[in-house]
Description:
By secondary structure, this protein is mainly alpha-helical. It has helices at about 20-25, 25-35, 50-55, 60-70, 75-90, 95-110, 145-150, and strands at about 10, 45, 115-120, 140. The model has no long low-confidence stretch (mean pLDDT about 80).
Amino acid sequence: MDFVLPLVFDTTAAPPAAPAELLGSKAANLLALRQLDFTIPPFYVVTSEAFRQAADQTELDRLMTTWVERVSGTEQEASEAAADIRRWLQRLELPRSLRNAIRSAHQQTIPEGSFLAVRSSVVGEDSPLHSFAGLHDTLLGLRQTEEVFDAVK
């Protein structure tokens, strides 16, 4: 039987060690703290596998290559390409499988009426070789799964 990588990781039923390559180091570290009996608010993680599958179902790889080739090294060009990528991602329709996985995890994990924080990140963002501090968005005060769908883009 093959192991299927989840699109959304339910942290309430998490194994003792969750792979950082799937969750990102921040989520993996939060799970490790929970295992040590630290109080961690309920959360779920949209995995790197979800991003990979969404990219496979769209033209994202081709478009990213085109945008990267357009940048000749100036900060202005890089900023314009990044803005183009962001606009394209915001228009992207999330795959039904991901919307269903988010909806299910949300219903199972988050108490009704809770305010949410959706934090974007990248696997390996805080490694000895790379630091992306301050480059990713955190959206606060979300309440509905529809808002989460928009935020994960």
